[in-house]
């Protein structure tokens, strides 16, 4: 039976460390670190995320600036808000919740965020910094996955990793981070010819495809470490109810894996904790205050 990787507990620890650093920052800078979150429209899942981000930002002793705009806001008005946040010295980090309504160009909106306030790590400047090994901001979910992997395995050097999924938010930055940790990385996706064979070679499997319970236990190398990024809502046994499952079939995978993240309680709680980590890093950089980023 696999060890369970407790992302919820790790995220709580990370938030506690961020809170300590945030208090120290406030004492030194004479102001709180600040995170601005912009939500356009009323997508229910996004509303839940944004509410949780706001609560956890305050709980860490940082300032939270929430901007909720109606779904029919013009792109020009959203860009003007981002420009104001770029210019506001109380704002260290800016996050525009995705997806945006269909009449907006997400790439254009992301490109308007000052890269040094882009705590989501989505701006092409930060994508390029990650790819070339320069300090910048790394997308929160894949950075959280690497933290869990290093906590479990120590050095990842020389390990074979497969990343299933090639999205800009998870798959591609995940692959870059694993390369930086000296893994041998395969990026698999919907056109991969023999996915079970690719997964079977891997010491580390990161599943981020959004297909409920797709990765089966008999695809895995015995003892592999499995990171399940999927959050899929499926019908539950009880009529009319739903339950959350990952991209990995937990029941069969946990018989073969050495360690595995559960859903919920694995990767999910890490995303906001890493966002707060990125924000306190941004605040120190903005105020030109030194601190040991690796201690977070
Ligand atoms: N929507 C789903 N995940 C994310 C995220 O990490 N950042 C932003 N901005 N939007 C999201």
Structural write-up:
NADP(+) binds at residues 165-167, 231. Homodimer. It catalyses: (6R)-5,10-methenyltetrahydrofolate + H2O = (6R)-10-formyltetrahydrofolate + H(+); (6R)-5,10-methylene-5,6,7,8-tetrahydrofolate + NADP(+) = (6R)-5,10-methenyltetrahydrofolate + NADPH. The protein has helices at 7-29, 44-59, 75-87, 106-112, 124-132, 140-153, 171-180, 195-200, 250-256, 268-287, and strands at residues 3-4, 34-40, 63-69, 93-96, 160-164, 184-188, 204-207, 225-228, 232-235, 242-245, 259-260. The chain is an alpha/beta fold and 296 residues long. The protein folds into 2 domains: 29-115, Rossmann fold (3-Layer(aba) Sandwich), CATH 3.40.50.10860; 140-269, NAD(P)-binding Rossmann-like Domain (Rossmann fold), CATH 3.40.50. The chain has a 6-stranded parallel β-sheet with strand order 1-11-8-7-5-6, sandwiched between helices. Helix 7 links the parallel strand 5 and strand 6. The two termini are 30 Å apart. The structure holds guanine. Guanine (GUN) is lined by residues 95-98, 120, 140-141, 271. The site of guanine has 8 residues, from strand 4 and helix 6.
